[in-house]
């Protein structure tokens, strides 16, 4: 109840932070432009003839969808937590009567309107102009994009929060963040559609579907770009929901164990 | 000059001592390097799994570009990045004053004052990859090409360093820039692909605006014997121009430093 009442204030703080650190915010946004480079790469490969089943405009639609999903679901809370733990700022956060899981979550969510204001119109115009026929026409699927994106956001935030909590044990945890990001880029369909990866590395792709990474990117993108049957849509959302619940549980468990190690460095 | 060399020696010793303090990191970093290289190769495997040639590059030659990418990345991450991350932090909290007070060029201090010796594993990985690529091709590089390739490796490192320095210099105006390293990483990521893969506007951007071609593609072409004297000279010239520009930007930026705390 107390958390609920604090929500609007936390939201306003998050918005103010985004505006105050706008340069950092823009740099973070620019780091999520890899899909555009991948788009250039794969369309030029496909211009010599379709690559497997993907034509040039399939790639355009795929990577623009990736860009939208990535902009709306990525967060970098792990990096902020490393900093807060290392510099002792966390002590202050712990004194507040709200679980940091909520506080961090809302501060990240507050940046979403800004990010969508920049990324979504541009991508939608590009999508409509050059990849329109490769987007789904199923109204149910388009409607299901909203819960799918929300679940992807929760998974991404939960995992980031868990990784950030590792900072309690290791002071230089940035390397772990790097490993996470490398895994994410390869296993989520960020660099190429997972269907393409499956043709060369079938076992690896099967393993990929057992990780949370496709739920963070590949599933929402699939909902937007492929026409799927209703049971398949339900199955995709169920996978995402399971991972969302799992990642919240893991995040809170790692946090609780890590907190016992907190030494309030410098604080 | 002697003083700088002595300084490098001392800092190397300190960094090595620090690295030896965390010996467990050797295993972690080693394992991570292997994972990193394997992951880097994955998209290449997919691409060449369905095509024998992409934009005139076959698998072994593309592996050479990848070896340059990993190699340049290792040198930059091992020598330049740690110091530049410190720079951003120091500008924010005002500790940069002490760097300026030291009787050596401040650019030297912020470019090479802390090292990450374990990155040598990545460098070995890059060399191993290059050897493997040449064994796939079935013929070792000609001695002249090898010399040109090594020389241009230096040019690639210089070009990358220049880009890093320019970006880090923006920290003088923008207060909080902890995430700079990730931005640089994602720009540099383009360099793992031969520049010919990109078309039209993209190729112009990656050749002249953000010259990733100078960092990996041109050196790889020289090593493969596909370059020419003109390309070699142009690459070296390009790297030197970038270095001069970076130096200029740095000197301009440093004049804007107002000291955060005092």
Question: What features would you describe in this structure?
Answer:
The complex is a heterodimer of chains A (267) and B (262). Chain A contains 15 helices and no strands. Chain A is mainly alpha-helical and 267 residues long. In chain A, helix 1 packs across helix 7 (100-109), helix 4 packs antiparallel against helix 8 and helix 11 (194-200) packs antiparallel against helix 12. In chain A, 42% of the residues are buried. Chain B starts with a helix and ends in a 7-residue tail after the last helix.
Beta-strand percent range of chain A: under 5%
Q: Give the total of beta strands of chain A.
A: 0
The helix count of chain A comes to 15
Helix tally of chain B equals 11
Based on the model shown, name its key terms.
heterodimer; A: 267 residues; mainly alpha; 15 helices; 76% helix; globular; B: 262 residues; 11 helices
SSE topology sketch:
The complex is a heterodimer of chains A (267) and B (262).
Chain A: H1 2-20, H2 22-31, H3 34-46, H4 56-73, H5 77-87, H6 90-95, H7 100-109, H8 112-130, H9 139-166, H10 174-187, H11 194-200, H12 202-208, H13 213-216, H14 218-225, H15 230-259
Chain B: H1 2-21, H2 24-50, H3 59-93, H4 96-101, H5 106-111, H6 120-137, H7 143-169, H8 180-188, H9 200-209, H10 212-223, H11 229-255
Helix pairs in contact in B: 2-3, 2-6, 3-6, 3-7, 3-10, 7-10, 7-11, 10-11
